[in-house]
Amino acid sequence: MEFDCRSYYMTAKEIGKVSDLGHVKEVLPLELESLIQMPSQKSFITKVKLGKAKKQNRPLPHWFRLKSDTKIRWNAKRRNWRHTKLNI
Known about the structure:
Keywords: Ribonucleoprotein, Ribosomal protein. The protein is an all-alpha fold. 40% of the residues lie in helices and 0% in strands. The longest helix is centred in the middle third of the chain and has 13 residues, at 44-56.
């Protein structure tokens, strides 16, 4: 069976005739229709963890490096968003 995109989409003239949002689903592919009805997937706990990880992922303050009694020169736990994932 061959895929026909014309059956998934309305033409531009048909879109112009749409007056209410109930017909918006006809414009989108069927796969996207389910995404519109679903809420955000992040729970509150996930948002808190992401916020904490964002705050921790920063360099040391400049004044801290200038202190004479510390040997810490950089943040050893710095994380790059592409290299290391959070596993949340």
